């Protein structure tokens, strides 16, 4: 009888340990699944508050906005995974857009203009990486300085003027689709899928994660830490250049004085998705959900005609919440 009671107790405790209740009490569970949970809750709230939220036209527009953010968040993820951060995105994005506008209006053609924009973003990323890895400047300080530099350079090169870019190709890129799948969604998902494969199935991704997890240990294992850090900022810059092309396609022009909130939202998307601000952890699928959460939040505010003055407050709160979740994960 005693043995039977003992077995019953063991089975009960085993079920409890493997059930949902312990997971709900685990802070890490909420940190890992914050983006998905948040997306479901926010979507449900807005669908009840406004009948326009779940219309296909609104969802399609929401996904287009999320696509640009997702490309930027993927760029940010490469920096964050190594324990760094890229604040220069807010300067690199308008800079790459200006280069695109200048090249196209200068008669260089669409293909060359796209390459020029991506190379412009890549150049900024390479400089960030060299300053951080070779000159040993803190990531935050280096990219913050580059943010100011590139904002100024964009204004000087363009003489403070915006450029209109009229192109059938860009119109098709912004409005075209394969069935119900818009080209913007497809590009963003391909970028995210590529990043996921890099982190999970390549030696380079393993080395990047090891660099972010413990640089000294990675160095002792023979991993070229400095080269890894330079490489991730180069990838980061190239993706920002691509995002600039998508932004020009959507808006029809390049503006050197563009003030964008993508800096905060790109960081929040990554951390909400389950990646750690302390490095060594990547969650690209979660980053997709994180980008959707923030885009949905702003989209819902717009539909409810909430003043745009309150929108940065909401994003800021999400950034703080993301930092807290990152701490819980650690």
Automatic annotation (TrEMBL):
Q: Where in the cell is it found?
A: Cell membrane
Q: Please give the start and end residues of each transmembrane region.
A: 34-54, 66-90, 110-133, 140-163, 183-209, 230-249, 261-278, 283-303, 309-328
Tell me the membrane topology, using the record's own terms: Multi-pass membrane protein
Which cellular component appears as one GO term in the record? plasma membrane
Q: Please list the GO terms describing molecular function.
A: transmembrane transporter activity
Sorted keywords for this record are: Cell inner membrane, Cell membrane, Membrane, Transmembrane, Transmembrane helix, Transport
Keyword DNA-binding applies = no
Pfam entry (one) = BPD_transp_2
Keyword Transmembrane carried by entry: yes
Name of this protein: ABC transporter monosaccharide permease
- Give the organism, scientific name: Acidocella aminolytica 101 = DSM 11237
Q: From which lineage does this chain's organism come?
A: Bacteria, Pseudomonadati, Pseudomonadota, Alphaproteobacteria, Acetobacterales
